Amino acid sequence: MCVCVCVCVLLLLCHMLGHFLHLPVLSCFLSLVSRGAGGWSPQVTDRQPWLQLDLRDRMEVTAVATQGRYGGSDWVSGYLLLFSDTGRAWKQYRQEDGVGRFAGNVNADGVVHHKLSHSIRSRFLRFVPLDWNPSGWVGLRVEVYGCAYKSYVADFDGRSSLLYRFNQKSMSTVKDVISLSFKSRQAEGVLLHGEGQRGDYITLELHRGKLALYLNLDDTRLRFSSGRVAVTLSSLLDDQHWHSVLIERFNKQVNLTVDTHTQHFRTKGEGDSLEVDYELSFGGIPLPGKPGTFLRKNFHGCIENLYYNGINIIDLAKRRKPQIYSGNVTFSCSEPQLVSTTFLSSSSSFLSLPATLSASGGFAVRFQFRTWNPDGLLLSTRLALEPQRLELQISNSRLLVLSMGTQSRKGSLVNDGLWHSASLSSRGLQVTMTLDNEPSSTMELGDHMEAGDSLYFGGCPSSSSSDSYCENPTLAFQGCMRLFSINSQPMDLNLVHQGRLGDYKELQFDTCGIHDRCLPNFCEHGGQCSQSWSHFYCDCSGTGYTGATCHNSIYEASCEAYRLTGSSSGLFSIDPDGSGPLGPTQVYCNMTENKVWTVVTHNSTDPVRVQGSTLQKPYMMKFNYSASPEQLMALVARSEQCQQEVVYSCRKSRLFNTWDGSPLSWWVDQGGERRTYWGGFLPGVQQCSCSLEENCMDMNYFLLSYKEHLPVSEIVIGDTNRTGSEALYRIGPLRCYGDKSVWNAASFYQESSYLHFPTLQAELSADISFYFKTSAPSGVFLENVGLKDFIRVELSSPSVVTFSFDVGNRPVDLAVKSHVPLNDRQWHYVRAERSVKEASLQVDQLPLRFLEAPSEGLLRLRLNSQLFVGGTAARQRGFLGCIRTLTINGVTFNLEERAKMTPGVSAGCPGHCSGSSSLCHNSGRCIEKNSGYVCDCSQSAYGGPSCKEEVSVSFNRESSVTYTFQEPFSVMQNRSFQASSVYRGNSRARENMAFIFMTTQSPAMLLTVSTFSQQYIAVILARNGSLQIWYHLHVDRRPDVFSPRPSSLADGHLHRIRIHREGKDVYLQVSNEYIYKRCENVDEEVMQAGSKGFIGCLSSVQFNHMAPLKAALLNRGSSLVSVRGHLVESNCGAPADSTTSHPLSGKCCCCKTQSPLNNISLHDSAVIGGVVSAVIFITLCVVVVMTRFLYQHRQGTYHTNEAKGTEFAETADAALRGDPALQDAMDESKKEYFI
């Protein structure tokens, strides 16, 4: 049993220049507050003060407490906690979520106690103040809680090992528990190995600083193959600090735990037992028959408390038991003096050391470094001819020596977080660079190094310094360095720290502060994590998801959603649970006039003949669908109705036993249950619905329509064994229609009413989306709280939606302000998202507001109450109005069902625009009117009463449409109100484009978007007719091009194109095929396409939330619109919608004659203007291309009778500025869009 102890620091003075506290371990608790003295306070001149404790021996520390100086105004408000076994090499303690900062005191007398989430086993502790009372100074009293710690230690020198020999020839186990702790001096080395003759093996080793476990049960193929697969966990394990390992195995199930991280997996092999012959080896894999010779690099470091199935291996070795062979192993841990220094800042950190030339006139510098950053200055020194310098850099993740325009580069990546050894030496004018064990490379200098000059490591001092010629090339180095040697003389950084040697800035001595931000991996849905020193990044390539953490699906949730975007029948990928754990699946969407059918096929849709089956040996067929069972379940649950066709004919075969009614054939539902009914809506009745209703037309045709049982997963036929007996069956595909989540709504008519649901599961990420309409000036849409954390979305004023949350860092408010009231009794869309990387808020088509999360801070949102929708637990600030389609993390909440049992709330929502029928198509907005509704098509690329009529134009080689965007609405910038300083605002570069085209010409220019700064987007057909999307994001770099596939689209057929870009990721839909790719540099083909123009038909052009082709053609005559050449209105071969009115309840509402719609359109114009002005967006074309393209076309005209919100404008220019489709998506300068 541990004896609890505490160490109390009482009224002692210490500072960083070697004044250590040596305190005895006390066996009783002492009072933290001591009268009669003050506490610890450093000298004002100390640059980096700290308080260090020596516990006299390794102790297990479980908690710490702090207090300010007694009787004064000195206290520490924030600090770091470091620990060490030696007092030289330190490691920073990190709390949950990797937070290193401890909250301190707010006054001199209060005690702040921190219980450590995982204990520290160490002798030395160091408290490093970060912040203190601004009106006072650093003052500190501390108390440490814990207990004594005993360990059995063995030291391995890289040539030694321990062998544990069994009492029998082999050891076979079905359950194993292996535990140990280790600290290593290198990134490679075997910790544990055992193997058996039948192919079993277990190997635990360090590889590139990570722990790898190889485990196989009874599979000889894996033993002799080169394809052994390891389960890897953790990283940076070569930091000379203790790490704990626990392996738990039962049969094939294995749990591997390293420190606080656990991974569960199933092992390879055929058996359940691990059979190891003769012995287990620790510290290396000895070569049979050659003691001291090893197959793999063995371990160099210390291991303690090594237990194998309850056996203390090190204790047996110390007592020299015969079953243990200990070769060159000692039983105390030697401590190497490898002390690191951390360069904290990528802009201002540097270390300056004097550089004295050797007797031969040259110099030699050696050091080791580790970092995650791809760029940074490692070393810089001045040459005799100023301002020339010799520099060693990390450039694009590789080492680069640079001097006077001459450079030498090493090919290996060095930003992998591992230690790398670099050396730079000169002799005469020749410089030699060596990296790790790679061959050296040389280059010639233009001048000698200046004698007596300084060497700058990691960066350069500010320009005000005496050495004004040292400049950081891009960034200073951010990482760790150690083992500095100049001309074979090791550098003592303690002297630097004490101010007696060289100079420094923004360094942390005696510790390497590198932190793996990809552990754990916060990238969702299989996204790949990469990192820099201060951030991690997710590569969502090929996952089907996008966003900062690959959280959001790029696919629609249903075929109904695809129809609302204007798609026609075809194969589509759908993601039924959106951002949930299920992936996308491919289905066929059959979009008929009345319904949208989702069709899922399986592996046996052809008729199958069955003979010779009996009840004892029945015929069985399992159906494998194109979607997983979980995806099918989600699809069926989301659909309004599902059905599956069964065709069955037989001869001398029965479905049921005529004597007792027992089934002879049956089918199995999605849950694995046997079903004996064969049609209709009455499960359990062993007949068909048509026979019950006496209206059967064909007894061989059944329609299964009880959707909770669908789809059919298996069919069993058991009565075809008599002479001449046979059965013929066919199971059709699963067919579902409708999306019942789209119009699932609830109406709140009492401010104190709300709906409650189980606690929101959103620790690391949450996306919340819904529609609302209200006439109230404010109200809470939803709220969920914990002890301190909370998340809330509310209408905080008639024109502001606010997304608020707190994960423990401090409250954050993210607000979007509309220039028009949102309490206008019309539907408005809200989407709020929060992840460990960022938070965002979208309202209608207003600019998307981003806040980037702090790189250091708590990550997990901890909630424990119910989720309240439409109000709060306090029954205050409740929402009055309607909420529909509430979806959180891909799950749609059934508001209607919960509303039926809640006072003050009713299911559904009154109004013509609240039905499940889609009244307005192609992103058209349904506007409620007293006698009906109208469709606002201002944000749609389509026109007409229902936003279904294409706006299409036929172009010839001399024709084009050009228009210019402006930013008239400064109010729409949507700055975040009262945003926390720990979150940084960010606008992610993204855009969406869609259009339909038909042509036989290639090359061809389809459309371009450009700025006067020569940035551009261009969508072209290349010479071979293939589609290419060009992005020129940086004017000093070559353009990027996305070429999805080589097939020609210049085939005279209609092609629907959808393009979505987010950062470097491009998602493209060509007709019904989705393609993902990252941009690459290629040669410019856009020039030839631009010179050829376009011959063909363009239709339904959409850019973000604008319809540029429609907007330009409806506002001809404006100075902002230029129509060149001859344009012909066309429908591109597709039939136009002829609907002219919307009769409702016996009334007719014609949208072309409703004057109030004009006011609504004008309001939307301002909204859209704001949207475009806040989105960062890229553009098209090199000046030569655009100059030729712009001036080779002649002006033409286009006429339309479509009513729009520009009817009240006094001039054409004013109408354009008020039109929502004519507002920009970039900066303050004008942009142009060419079609």
Automatic annotation (TrEMBL):
Gene3D superfamilies: 2.60.120.1000, 2.60.120.200, Galactose-binding domain-like, Laminin
Top-level taxon in the UniProt lineage: Eukaryota
Transmembrane segments: 1166-1191
Residue intervals of the Laminin G domain: 153-333, 340-512, 744-909, 967-1132
Sorted UniProt keywords: Disulfide bond, EGF-like domain, Membrane, Repeat, Signal, Transmembrane, Transmembrane helix
Subcellular location per the Swiss-Prot or TrEMBL entry: Membrane
Fibrinogen C-terminal domain mapped to chain residues: 550-602
Span of domain EGF-like: 514-551, 910-948
Record membrane topology: Single-pass type I membrane protein
Cystine connections: C882-C909
InterPro entries: ConA-like_dom_sf, EGF, FA58C, Fibrinogen-like_C, Fibrinogen_a/b/g_C_dom, Galactose-bd-like_sf, Laminin_G, Neurexin-related_CASP
CDD domains assigned: EGF_CA, FA58C, LamG
Protein's UniProt name: Contactin associated protein-like 5a
Family to which the UniProt record says this protein belongs: Belongs to the neurexin family.
Entry annotated with the keyword RNA-binding: no
PROSITE patterns named among the record's database cross-references: EGF_3 (PS50026), FA58C_1 (PS01285), FA58C_2 (PS01286), FA58C_3 (PS50022), FIBRINOGEN_C_2 (PS51406), LAM_G_DOMAIN (PS50025)
Residues in the signal sequence: 1-18
Limits of the F5/8 type C domain: 40-147
Main location: membrane
GO cellular component, one term: membrane
Keyword Glycosyltransferase attached: no
Pfam families named among the record's database cross-references: F5_F8_type_C, Laminin_G_2
